[in-house]
Amino acid sequence: YQRRVRGTPMQKLQNLTALINQACGDAVTNILVIEALLRDNRWMVSDWDGLYADLPYRQLKVAVADRSLIKTFDAERQVCEPEGLQAQIDDLVAQYMPGARCFVRPSGTENCVRVHAECRTQRDADALSMAVGQLVFDCTEKLRAKL
Questions:
Q1: How far, in Å, CA of 29 to CA of 19, rounded?
Q2: Is the peptide bond before 82 cis (omega within 30 degrees of 0)?
Q3: pLDDT value, residue 138
Q4: Is the distance from CB of 23 to CB of 32 less than 8 angstroms?
Q5: What is the pLDDT of residue 58?
Q6: How far from each other are the two terminal CA atoms of the chain, in whole angstroms?
Q7: What span, in angstroms and rounded, lies between the C-alpha atoms of 21 and 30?
Q8: Shortest CA distance to 80 belongs to which of 114, 113, 104, 116?
Q9: How is 106-130 classified by DSSP, letter by letter?
Q10: Cis peptide before 106 (omega within 30 of 0)
Q11: Closest CA relative to residue 106, chosen from 124, 92, 122, 85
C-alpha cells in the first residue's frame, strides 16, 4: 500500500485505475479503494461521512396527456423543449436558493413527467416540486391545446 500511493496526485489516480474494474465494479475492491483513500488523506470514516449531507427531497409524478412534449438534455437535467420552460423552472429554483435544485424528465413508460426537487428544508422541497409540477402541467396543456 505505502509504495503505491506515493507520488503526484495524477500518479495516484492512475494507480487507482489499475485497481478498479471500470466495467462492472467490485464491492471488495471498492471497499479497499475507500480504505486507501481514507489512509492517504489521514481521515477517519466520520471525516469522510461529514463531507456530504443529504438534502430533503421530493419526487412528484405529474400526469400529462403527452409526455413527448417535454424534451431534455444534459443527462435529463435540463429542458430544451418546450422553449422557455427551463428558464421558468430556474426562476422558481432561485426563490429557494441557496442549496435548491430541480429537474423534470418525461417518464419512459407512462404519460407522466417526473419532477425532482431538492432544498434545504422538506417544506421547501415540497413547495418547489409542487410549483414546478404545476408549471409542467400548465405548459403541456397549453401546447396540447395548440396542436
A1: 7
A2: yes
A3: 94
A4: no
A5: 97
A6: 64
A7: 9
A8: 104
A9: E-SSSSEEEEEEE-SSHHHHHHHHH
A10: no
A11: 85
Q: What is the mean pLDDT of each successive set of 10 residues along the chain, which is 147 residues long?
A: 60 76 72 84 89 92 93 92 95 95 94 96 97 95 83
Residue pair 57/95 in contact (Cβ under 8 Å)? The answer is: no
As given in the structure block, the three cell numbers for residue 93 are 429554483
Task: Check: pTM over 0.85? Answer yes or no.
Answer: no
9-19 and 27-41 are packed helices; what angle lies between their axes, rounded to 10 degrees? 160
CA distance 24 to 85: 37
Residues whose CB falls within 8 Å of the CB of residue 100, separated by 6 or more in sequence, listed in order: 93, 117, 118, 119, 120, 124, 128
For the chain, give the number of residues. Answer: 147
Residue 21 burial (CB count, 10 A): 10
Q: What is the pLDDT of residue 3?
A: 47
| Dihedral sign (CA 73, 74, 77, 83) | negative
